[in-house]
């Protein structure tokens, strides 16, 4: 049966057009129940013995995905109308739902109700899309009940009061999430239930889950219609809220509309906004703007009840979230300081799962078994979260994960629930049988069929080698270099893993030969987004048979590659570039140390060492040319641990050493990424996945300029080239001085992000740090899904593969880029958390005296960076609770002086400090730095 389906959409040019599509309806779509007497049960996914089948609506999926992922919830039908609506509203939840529906161990079945002739519904006149979808869900539920008969109960699960009422009127069994979970007889599952913030759930359903109501504490958020109008007329200002790392009661919102940072003082003015939320801000009257010279360091134990009396920081702290604070009493004199404001609405939430521990609260009378507790995140920027749990005794004294549900204006704290997830949304679950079924059998070896496919070149005769961190197993890039008859070099870049450094680059195993688009393996890699590198563990994006064997470019085995081959002059000028799928055989898998030792040993003249030296010579020229174009040479304090192989405890800690061998590999990976970016964009101008690095704003660079001025440096930040030249001139008698300045400069930068080329104008494509007009990630497909996408784009540009249909779906491409950015940030946070944990373990038994450098000055202390260990933390000059009145801050010269003495501490000054792990609160150890 053929139906016409019409809808309106907005084009990129802003025009609204009506789209009419043919919609085919069928009567042979299976229901998925093995007990069905009329459908083909070979495609059944539900339990054979299922007496109840649940159908969930869209809001249940969006809000209760943690619950749905519990193994206790099964025999669920997901309607195609729900799946599509979830995809449009939240791609991350959509990916988790798809993983459930494709997991052979779970009883989830997707029913195409929009294509079944008995369940498809047309939109009625005056009916909203939401009401139409709710009606479609009820029609499908009623059809299921009629289709399966009286022996199977079909239950519609919805927290929408109106949808539930209509369902019951239409003869459909319907329950709220909470009542359904209670009926399962598993009280612990209630910990996973997300409380509704819309008032749809009846009070009897959540009576023992909802905290008691109090007086209004926060202002109501403005409706989006009012926010939109306010933004248009300049009454409100939009930006991302960034909470101070050292002071959770102060935040900043960068506003393009006023060209400055707006400071938000106190929880009241933050108005329930979380770090990373996109918010609408209203400026306070200018007489409420405050001076910032008395900002001092806050203690972990500071009570957030008194946040309204905080004194703000100075302007230099705004961009980097490194401010220091102390509660004060009394009135604050009005001054013409930085713009201050208050949050009036949340445009986009940044809630996710948080790691921390519980503070027990008294169990309310009459609720036996249900305990209220306050969750304290180990990230001090996150407010305490109120949860209800029946597992309090089991969860105390443990690190747990909590997700935020709501934050009512009547509650001092947000409400959340305990989830069985790991911090930073990192998926550590084993790969499913469906994913593993996509892998070729082991042992895998190159066949004649492999060579015949994709116009693959046989380059096994070339002297190919890889250079990686020691012990690297997921090698996804390699190089070769040989001199041509005309005296030029032919340089090939092929697959390897490169350890995260400043710009995290590698290259190029032919992963897409094994990860085919649309397969369960591809879906899993898309959801995970990236491999995660912890101090002593790697959480893979792809199963180990691929990462460490089939795709890894190990030495002395034949492997498939995707090659970028340049002809270059001895002066590193690229004469020509070509791309090809290839077969290679690496002759050596070197570590950076081994490669550097070969290049430095003048006695070694073998062909491999000669290749290394030739490549290094070219790389030095390429690097110099890049810097001359304005590329920045920044620095970051990367920490390296030596781990005990038996106890897995850290034995030693220090900063990671960068050698010429590292920089050599980096240069060729950068060049490969730039070349591929140019190629794919030329062929696919509207759907290429690229990577951009926005220029830092003037406000973001202000802390660097203030620090530089305090030590007599004049930095020019008018362009990346000007900043790079200024950093090169920032030298002194201290050999570490320049690196410290570059570390401070790194902290002023924006984050590089993935994007679809169809979403931005070409002027926004550039990469500030690399001074590159175009850039992408092609060089690490074993560990980054972005590179997998780019491999597919390049193969299609070369005509050796078809472009997957997903590249024709602009919104989905945007969603994929957003998910990749989200996963990349989470991986970075997990990596930093791993370093933090191992740092605490190391110093717990090793109190240490060492040298540090002051990187930020405040009135009762300063922030110190410890070069030997790559560690940073606050040092107090006055006892806890003291307002620091004895110390006077000179903001202009970045100095703090004790009143009446000549004791002075200045920016970048060397100080001796004592480092020791202390535990001021149970289960919350911290590394304490004290001045010697």
UniProtKB/TrEMBL annotation:
Residues 312-335 are annotated as: Disordered. This is S1 motif domain-containing protein. It is found in: Nucleus. Its main location: nucleus. It comes from Musa balbisiana. GO terms for molecular function: 3'-5'-RNA exonuclease activity; endonuclease activity; RNA binding. GO terms for biological process: nuclear mRNA surveillance of mRNA 3'-end processing; rRNA catabolic process; rRNA processing. The keyword Hydrolase applies. Its cofactor is Mg(2+).
């Amino acid at each position: 049966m053929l139906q016409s389906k019409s809808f309106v959409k907005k084009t990129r040019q802003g025009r609204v057009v009506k789209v009419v599509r043919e919609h085919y309806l069928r009567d042979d779509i299976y229901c998925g129940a093995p007990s069905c007497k009329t459908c083909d049960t070979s495609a059944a996914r539900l339990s054979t013995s299922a007496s109840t089948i649940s159908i969930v609506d869209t809001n249940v999926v969006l809000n209760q995905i943690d619950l749905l992922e519990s193994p206790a919830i099964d025999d669920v039908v997901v309607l195609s109308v729900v799946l599509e609506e979830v995809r449009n509203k939240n791609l991350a939840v959509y990916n988790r739902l798809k993983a459930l529906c494709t997991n052979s161990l779970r009883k989830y079945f997707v029913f195409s109700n929009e294509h079944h002739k008995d369940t498809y519904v047309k939109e009625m006149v005056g009916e909203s899309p939401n009401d139409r979808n709710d009606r479609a869900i009820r029609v499908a539920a009623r059809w299921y009940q009629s289709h399966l008969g009286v022996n199977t109960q079909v239950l519609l699960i919805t927290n929408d009061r109106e949808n539930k009422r209509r369902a019951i009127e239409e003869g459909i069994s319907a329950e709220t999430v909470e009542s359904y979970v209670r009926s399962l007889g598993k009280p612990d599952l209630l910990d996973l239930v997300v409380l509704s913030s819309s008032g749809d759930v009846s009070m009897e359903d959540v009576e023992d889950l909802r905290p008691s109501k109090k007086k209004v504490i926060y202002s109501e958020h403005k409706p989006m219609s009012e926010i939109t109008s306010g933004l248009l007329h300049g009454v409100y200002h939009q930006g991302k809220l960034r909470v101070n790392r050292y002071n959770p009661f102060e935040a900043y919102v960068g506003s393009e509309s006023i060209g400055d940072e707006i400071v938000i003082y106190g929880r009241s003015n933050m108005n329930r906004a979380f770090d990373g939320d996109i918010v609408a801000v209203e400026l306070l009257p200018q007489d409420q703007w405050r001076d910032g010279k008395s900002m001092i360091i806050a203690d972990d134990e500071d009570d957030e009840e008194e946040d309204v009396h905080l004194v703000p920081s100075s302007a230099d702290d705004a961009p980097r979230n490194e401010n220091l604070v102390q509660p004060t009493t009394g009135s604050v004199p009005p001054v013409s300081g930085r713009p201050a404001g208050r949050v009036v609405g949340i445009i986009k939430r940044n809630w996710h799962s948080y790691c921390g521990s519980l503070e027990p609260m008294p169990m309310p009378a009459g609720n036996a078994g249900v305990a209220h507790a306050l969750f304290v995140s180990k990230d001090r920027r996150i407010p305490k979260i109120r949860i209800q749990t029946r597992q309090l005794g089991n969860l105390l004294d443990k690190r747990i994960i909590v997700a935020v549900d709501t934050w009512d204006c009547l509650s001092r704290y947000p409400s959340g629930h305990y989830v069985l997830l790991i911090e930073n949304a990192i998926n550590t679950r084993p790969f499913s049988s469906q994913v593993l079924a996509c892998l070729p059998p082991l042992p895998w070896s190159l066949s004649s069929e492999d060579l015949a496919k994709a116009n693959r070149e046989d380059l096994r005769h070339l002297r190919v080698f890889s250079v990686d961190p020691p012990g690297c197993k997921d090698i996804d890039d390699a190089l070769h270099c040989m001199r041509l008859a005309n005296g030029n070099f032919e340089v090939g870049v092929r697959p390897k893993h490169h350890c995260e450094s400043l710009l995290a680059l590698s290259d190029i195993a032919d992963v897409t030969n094994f990860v085919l688009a649309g397969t369960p393996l591809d879906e899993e890699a898309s959801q995970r987004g990236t491999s995660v590198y912890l101090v002593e563990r790697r959480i893979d994006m792809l199963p180990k048979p691929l990462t460490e064997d089939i795709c890894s470019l190990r030495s002395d085995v034949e492997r498939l590659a995707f090659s970028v081959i340049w002809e270059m002059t001895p002066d590193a000028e690229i004469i020509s570039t070509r791309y090809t799928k290839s077969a290679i055989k690496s002759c050596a898998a070197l570590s950076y140390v081994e490669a550097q030792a070969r290049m430095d040993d003048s006695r070694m003249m073998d062909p491999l060492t000669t290749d290394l030296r030739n490549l290094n010579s070219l790389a030095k020229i390429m690097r110099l040319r890049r810097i001359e174009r304005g590329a920045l040479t920044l620095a970051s304090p990367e920490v390296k641990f030596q781990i005990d192989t038996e106890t897995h405890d850290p034995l030693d800690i220090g900063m990671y050493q960068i050698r010429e061998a590292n920089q050599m590999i980096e240069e060729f990976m950068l060049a490969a990424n730039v070349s591929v970016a140019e190629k794919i964009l030329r062929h696919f101008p509207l759907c290429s996945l690229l990577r951009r690095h926005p220029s830092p704003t003037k406000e973001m660079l202000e802390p660097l300029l203030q620090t530089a001025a305090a030590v007599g440096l004049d930095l020019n930040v008018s362009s990346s080239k000007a900043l790079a030249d200024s950093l090169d001139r920032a030298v002194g008698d201290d050999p570490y001085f320049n690196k410290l300045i570059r570390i401070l400069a790194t902290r002023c930068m924006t984050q590089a992000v993935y994007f679809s080329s169809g979403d931005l104008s070409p002027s926004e494509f550039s990469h500030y740090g690399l001074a590159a007009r175009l850039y992408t990630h092609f060089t690490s497909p074993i560990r980054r899904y972005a590179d997998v996408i780019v491999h597919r784009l390049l193969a299609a540009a070369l005509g050796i593969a078809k472009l997957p249909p997903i590249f024709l779906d602009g919104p989905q491409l945007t969603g994929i880029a957003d998910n990749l950015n989200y996963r990349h940030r989470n991986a970075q946070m997990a990596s930093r958390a791993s370093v933090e944990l191992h740092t605490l373990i190391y110093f717990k038994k090793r109190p240490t005296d060492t040298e540090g450098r002051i990187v930020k000055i405040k009135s009762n202390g300063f922030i110190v960076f410890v070069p030997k260990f790559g560690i940073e933390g606050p040092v107090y000059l006055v006892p806890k609770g003291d307002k620091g009145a004895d110390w006077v801050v000179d903001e202009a010269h970045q100095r703090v002086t004790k009143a009446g003495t000549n004791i002075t501490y200045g920016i970048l000054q060397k100080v001796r400090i004592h480092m020791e792990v202390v535990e001021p609160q149970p289960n919350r150890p911290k590394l304490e730095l004290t001045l010697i």
